[in-house]
Structures are given as structure tokens and as C-alpha cells.
Amino acid sequence: MTWKARRLDGVAAAADVQARVGKRVQALKSRGITPGLAVVQVSGVAASTVYVKKKIETATLLGFHAQRVHLEESAGYDQLLRTVDSLNRDPSIHGFLVQSPLPSGWDEARVFREADPAKDLDGFHPLNVGRATLGEGGFWPCTAIGILELLRFHGVGLTGKHAVVVGRSRVVGRPCATLLGQRGVDATVTLCHTATLDLADHTRGADIVVMAAGMMRSLKGDMIREGAVVVDVGIHSVEDPTRPGKRRLVGDVDEATVSPRASWLSPVPGGVGPMTVAMLLQNAVTACERSHA
Q: What is the distance between the alpha carbons of residues 269 and 11, in angstroms, rounded to a whole number?
């Protein structure tokens, strides 16, 4: 397949964000302050382990004090809550996150509520959700704000455009829809989900489609209008027919049929993923700056 759509290059956009974050880190260190972040991971989901390693490595390269806190599932849910409490009280850690997924039956929402909102780098604490929505300084979830930064980096105009967000999770879909409709961004937003009737009727009318549905290759070329901007948030591991025994990543977008019609399309991998890490680091340096203001 010949790629026609221009790529929303998350690697380049993330490098731009990280360069700015690095300068802010150095400014803090010149004052004798080293921003600290922690990533808490329960047990060893392979995909999560690779992701956590990338976060820690990138943060360290930029000058953060970065630590991975690993807990075995056998340690139990209460130990996770004690770990969150310890990080809340640790003055060397300015922000942290608890890596998903958590073991089945563990109350993830309670973990978010137990985090100090000032250190909640994922922006999942209810206080951060409210503050961010009201423009009062809360942290936005990293993937959602990363999508907005990705579009801005590539000069994609948003004012007055019709954006359709597919997926209503509190991690991506809902905050992304809210962000796109915020004053200063000024898109007109439609939020679609599993109960939406005739999804294609909505996506065909969109200037911008954000696919965060978690359904592999579910957006087809005939579901978008010519020239639409498409952001693919999905990530799925499938067998690679070109490499027997190997696997590759694909998204919620059927690249083969969407790319010939779209004006811009984020690749999987290399699109939204790098932005999530970059915005985590931006939130982390912001948390440090606020604590030393």
C-alpha cells in the first residue's frame, strides 16, 4: 500500500516537547532542585513493562530523578495503597502515576482518589478532572493532551472544525472531547460511543476523527470524508504476515483504506504513543515547578 496521508509524526512532536521540558528541568536544577517522578507497576504485564521502562529512561535522560516502584500482585491491594500514601508524603517525588492495568478486582478508581492531586501526573483524580475542565490548573490526562499537542505541532487548524471523538473512556475519549471544545481550541465536538447509532454517519461529517474505541481496524475508509484528519489512539498486537512467528502493532483505524482518503493520519506505532510519554514528563516538571513556586 502506498501511504498517501501525511503522517502525524508523534516521534518528532514528542522530541519537541521533551526539548522544552529538558530546558525547564535544567532551570530547576540550576536552583538546586531535581524534579522527581515515580511510576508504580504491579506485577509484570509485558507491554506495560516496556512502556514503564521507556518512561523511566526518557525521564532520566532529561535530568529527572526517576524511579520505578515494582509491586508483586501477591503483595496485595492494601500494599498498593500504602505505596501511594508513601509517594504522597515523599518530598523527593513531585509526581507519580500508577501504571494500568491493575490486577482484576482491584479498585482502580480508589487508587486515583488516594493520590495527592498535586502529584497526580495522569490527571485522573476527581479534583484534577474538575480543575482542568474549568481551566484552573489541573493536570489533563497525558494521552488526551498529547493528541492536542500532536495536532498543534503539525499545524492542523482546530478552530471551527467539527471533531468526532469515538470512545468515552475517562483516560482518553472524554478528556479529549472536552479539550477540543475548550475556549482557545474552539472545535465543535461530537462524542460517539458504543450506543451511538450509525457511527459512520457521524464520522463522515467530521473534519477530524479521533479513534479511541479500542476496536481494531474499525474505522474504514468509507467512514470518513475526503481530506479528513484522523488520529488513531488504538493499539493492538497481531501476527505479522510478513514475518512468520512475529507480531506487529495496529490501531483502531484500517490504515489501508483510510490513508488514501485522509489528509493526515497518525501511524501505529509512532503516533500518539510517544506523545503520552512526553506529556507525562511535561506534567511532571510542571508539578515540580508548582511545588517550588
A: 10
